[in-house]
């Protein structure tokens, strides 16, 4: 079994049987020496081809500034370099991995660029760059990632990307993309208009993009969008006027968008909208009367909207509303009787 699993290893890779773990379909091998020391290679149990490479088992001493060439492993399907903190650049040979499906480059603290050859990965389904906060741009060549379904970029609660200021127009060529995460890209000011070409996009997360002032009107063309979070986009002043074209949108989070002044009247056309979170939108003064058309709305949170002056009477007639919050809306002049009745119902 061991010999079969390692038959495709190059001469520079040293392993022994103590580092081998066999599973149903794969054999996991810890590399003892050479350029890939400390990494785990995953070999197909039947063919012996190396189909996976993980650097998560490397000690800090084993992590290098330059990642070695991957030309000896043409059948790789997964490359996981999560937490490979000292890598400055990714070897251009990554583009030769025609079978690669997942590329994990999260928490690569020193990584600043991606090689243009990354656009050759025609079968790549997932690209994870989360918490690799020094990456300043995505290459135009990402347009070649014709199978990409999930792109994860930006930072977590403790890390922010302050380098990325724009996204390439070629983003719109990722026509298979279903999930786009751009959290904590604090210098990102705009989203390319080409985003409207992403007809398969179902999730868009732009949380804490604090320099983002506007969303392109073309966003309304993402006809299959289900979830959108704009949490803490503190400079965002408005939403696309045609947001009502997002007829499958179920969840819209605008919490702490403190510059958001109004919602488009077309929001009443988002017939599947179930969750609308507007808490701490301190510049929001009015809600459009069309919000009363959201017959599937289950949660409407307006707490701490300190400039909110009135609530449409029709809100009180939303039969499926289970959560209705208007705490600390200090400028609210009057609450319709129907809404008072609803408040009592949702709190009971």
Give a short overview.
This protein has 348 residues and is mostly beta strands. 4% of the residues lie in helices and 16% in strands.
Task: Summarize the helices and strands and which ones pair or pack.
Elements lengths: L1 H4 L14 E3 L3 E5 L9 E5 L5 E5 L23 E3 L21 E3 L21 E3 L21 E5 L24 E5 L19 E3 L21 E3 L21 E3 L21 E3 L21 E3 L21 E3 L11 H11 L1
Parallel strand pairs: 4-5, 5-6, 6-7, 7-8, 8-9, 9-10, 10-11, 11-12, 12-13, 13-14, 14-15
Antiparallel strand pairs: 1-2, 2-3, 3-4
Q: Could you say what the CATH architecture of the domain at 237-348 is? A: Alpha-Beta Horseshoe
The SS-based structural class is mainly beta
Order of helices and strands: HEEEEEEEEEEEEEEEH
| Sheet having the most strands | 15 strands, mixed
Strand content: 15-25%
CA(first)-CA(last) distance: 64 Å
What's the arrangement of strands in the largest beta sheet? 1-2-3-4-5-6-7-8-9-10-11-12-13-14-15
Radius of gyration: 24 Å
The proportion of residues forming helix, as a percent range, comes to under 10%
**Overall geometry:** elongated
- Which runs of at least 5 residues are low in confidence (pLDDT < 50)? 1-8, 14-18
The number of E-state strands comes to 15
- The CATH class label of the domain at 237-348 is Alpha Beta
Q: What is the arithmetic mean of pLDDT? A: 90
Provide the CATH topology of the domain at 237-348.
Leucine-rich repeat, LRR (right-handed beta-alpha superhelix)
Q: Tell me the name of the CATH homologous superfamily of the domain at 237-348.
A: Ribonuclease Inhibitor
The total of helices stands at: 2
């Amino acid at each position: 079994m061991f010999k079969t699993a390692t038959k495709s290893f190059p001469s520079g890779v040293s392993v022994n049987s103590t580092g081998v773990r066999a599973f149903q379909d794969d054999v996991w091998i810890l590399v003892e020496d050479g350029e890939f020391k400390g990494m785990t290679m995953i070999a197909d149990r039947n063919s012996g081809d190396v189909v996976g490479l993980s650097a998560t088992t490397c000690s800090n001493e084993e992590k290098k500034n330059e990642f070695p060439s991957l030309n000896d492993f043409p059948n790789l399907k997964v490359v996981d370099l999560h937490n490979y903190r000292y890598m400055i650049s990714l070897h251009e040979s990554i583009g030769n991995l025609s079978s690669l499906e997942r590329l994990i480059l999260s928490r690569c603290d020193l990584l600043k660029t991606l090689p243009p050859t990354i656009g050759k990965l025609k079968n790549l389904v997932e690209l994870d760059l989360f918490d690799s906060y020094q990456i300043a741009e995505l290459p135009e060549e990402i347009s070649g990632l014709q199978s990409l379904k999930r792109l994860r970029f930006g930072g977590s609660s403790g890390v922010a990307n302050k380098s990325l200021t724009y996204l390439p127009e070629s983003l719109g060529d990722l026509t298979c993309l279903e999930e786009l995460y751009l959290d904590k890209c604090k210098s990102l000011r705009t989203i390319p208009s080409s985003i409207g070409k992403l007809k398969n996009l179902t999730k868009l997360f732009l949380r804490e993009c604090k320099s983002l002032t506007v969303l392109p009107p073309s966003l309304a063309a993402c006809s299959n969008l289900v979830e959108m979070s704009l949490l803490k986009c503190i400079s965002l002043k408005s939403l696309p006027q045609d947001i009502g074209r997002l007829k499958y949108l179920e969840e819209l989070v605008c919490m702490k968008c403190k510059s958001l002044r109004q919602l488009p009247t077309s929001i009443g056309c988002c017939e599947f909208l179930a969750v609308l979170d507007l808490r701490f939108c301190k510049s929001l003064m009015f809600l459009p009367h069309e919000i009363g058309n959201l017959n599937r709305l289950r949660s409407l949170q307006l707490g701490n909207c300190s400039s909110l002056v009135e609530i449409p009477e029709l809100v009180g007639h939303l039969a499926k509303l289970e959560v209705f919050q208007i705490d600390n809306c200090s400028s609210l002049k009057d609450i319709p009787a129907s809404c008072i009745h609803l408040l009592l119902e949702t709190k009971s």
